[in-house]
Amino acid sequence: MRHFFILVIFINSFYIICQTVNSGFSWLSTSPTTTVTSPSFNSGSCSNIQYTISSSETFRGVFNGSPYNNNSLIFPSNINITPLFVDMTITFNQPISNLKIRFIDLDENVNGFTQPEESVSQINPAPSSVNLLGGNINPIFLNNGIVTPFDNNPNNNNNDASGWVNWSGNLSSVSFRYNRPGALYALIIDSIYFDCPTNCLVNANAGPDVSICTNQSTTLNANNSNGNQFIWSNGSTASSINVSTPGTYWVSVSNGTCSDIDTVIVSLQNYQPNVLNNSLTICSNNTLSINASNSNVNSYLWNTGQTTSSINVNNPGTYWVQVSNGSCFYNDTVIVSAQTYEPDALENLLVICPNSLFTLDASSTISTTYLWNTGETTSSINANNIGTYWVQVSNGNCSFRDSILVSNQIVNFTPLPTLDYLCDNSTLTINAFDNSTVTYLWNTSESTSNISVNQPGNYWVERTDANGCSLKEFITILEIINQNTESSFVKCKGESVLLTSSQNNNSNYLWNNGTTIGSLVVNESGIYTVTTTNSCGVSLDRFTVLFNDCDCGVYIPNSFTPDEDEFNQVFSIKTDCSFYDFHLEIYNRWGEIIFESFDPNEYWDGNYGAKKVQDGIYTYKVSYINNLNPERINLTGHISLIK
Q1: pLDDT, tens digit, for every residue of 412-455?
Q2: For residues 361 and 366, what is the distance between their CA atoms, to the nearest angstrom?
Q3: CA pair distance 306, 296, nearest whole angstrom
Q4: In sequence order, what DSSP letters do the residues of 18-34 get, joined into one string?
Q5: Do 262 and 211 touch, CB atoms closer than 8 A?
Q6: Is the Cβ–Cβ distance between 597 and 616 less than 8 Å?
Q7: CA 58 remoteness from chain centre
Q8: Phi first, then psi: what are they for 198, rounded to 5°?
Q9: Looking at per-residue confidence, does 531 or 225 come out higher?
Q10: Pairing with 210, which of 173, 186, 259, 547 sits 20 to 30 Å away (CA)?
Q11: Do 270 and 327 contact (CB within 8 A), yes or no?
Q12: What angle do CA 358, 363, 367 make, to 5 degrees?
């Protein structure tokens, strides 16, 4: 809201002068050459009151702001001026109260002529009081509205008379007559003061300056003004107007007597963030993310009802979002169109022969990248396993995934046995015939459905059916030699022996203790037999088992003294049993062999190379088999040589 005033302070007045209005008031003189200050104007609290002064005579010499100086007045020689009086009216554009007008009568002595003094009469409405100031003042006559407040001594040029004429109540205008009995007049109005009536106060209020958003409007409301008549700058006479265009708007508010103007500036808040692309493309069976994120946005509302900054869609169509920064709203729209991208990448089903190598090819003229579930990124792959394979192909914008099921061609070959037996000095026929087989190929280079073999070993046949599917099968031929065998075992007491039939191929077994398996564990001395029956005949295995007492003492000294006395002169090993396959080694501290013997009856006398060795500790290793235990025994220890 903007008001405009002019504030002027009159030091010599009780009132504060709010505005000075010059409306053309003049000297009442034929041809004055000196101008004086325009009347002082007090409007109290009324900011828009103006007044006009009209007269029955054409005035000359306008008040235009020059300082008043009564010592510089110059009058012309021609003083025969008529009429003898002038009627004047002061009219106010709005009612005022407590009006005061100050008149000043200037003493004149022009060219030797003294002039009668002027007076004011026919005042309408009649003043409430007159206050005369200074000079030789005649009595005050209020009868018939005549006021004579002026100096009656025409020769008293330096003793000008003045006076106040006061009115109370509300006034729209006052009129009076200047009486001038002489040839000229020099009566002036010095000051006009008045107050503004209470019922005249109007304060226009159109509200504060506002900022509007793009494509939005705001209401300018002057209802808070204390007036009831409105005129806006756009011509509206309502108390409020709705505007959508930035600019400066004013409203004039009146109560029928007084009026006031207020101005509002409406500015544009430029809020139009770029939040969406104009168009997007969604690929078939894919999800598209539409993102409206913007640093100037703090709320979102999509036509899907979601309030996040981005949404995921999987259907083409038109999508819009309304974004806001708290005061302004902005709508943006994106059109999502469908892009069909479904190349024929793979067949639905591929049937292959078992264990065959195959190629899957997804090459396409519109595809630029490939990704298989095997991790390969070529347009085609080689594989040999059945199952489901998929490939994801892309043209840069859209991706499409296609899959294929690879299954085995059904091959109904009658399976071959994996093991068969050939009797000693006989021939075995291997039969691979099958109704679905078209061709045969053996590792013997034969191409018949069966072959005859007379040697044990591994054989295979590759059979091919009508679909071209081949299957290679293997068979092992073992030879059965039925013969009677005899074996013997000598063990120490407390040990055990595993007895196994010599015929361990597709046979039936019967041991002499009633056991019917191919092997038997025994821990007692005796004779054991097993009868084996198979397709090649019957055989008998005989086992003799002897368990001896193998607890045989062995004596090894830990020191000897080769000092040529009669005691403990040599190092030797003794036993209560008999040694077989005996081996003794003695080492010095550097790991060097200084004595070695394969005879259990030989001893070491402490010499090495025909010289006595030094006292010390030496290491021995002995290995042997005794007559009670067929297992080899290894012993290690130390011996001290002391002289």
Answers
A1: 788 888 888 888 888 999 999 988 888 999 999 999 999 999 99
A2: 14
A3: 19
A4: --------B-SSSS---
A5: no
A6: no
A7: 85
A8: -60, -40
A9: 531
A10: 259
A11: no
A12: 145
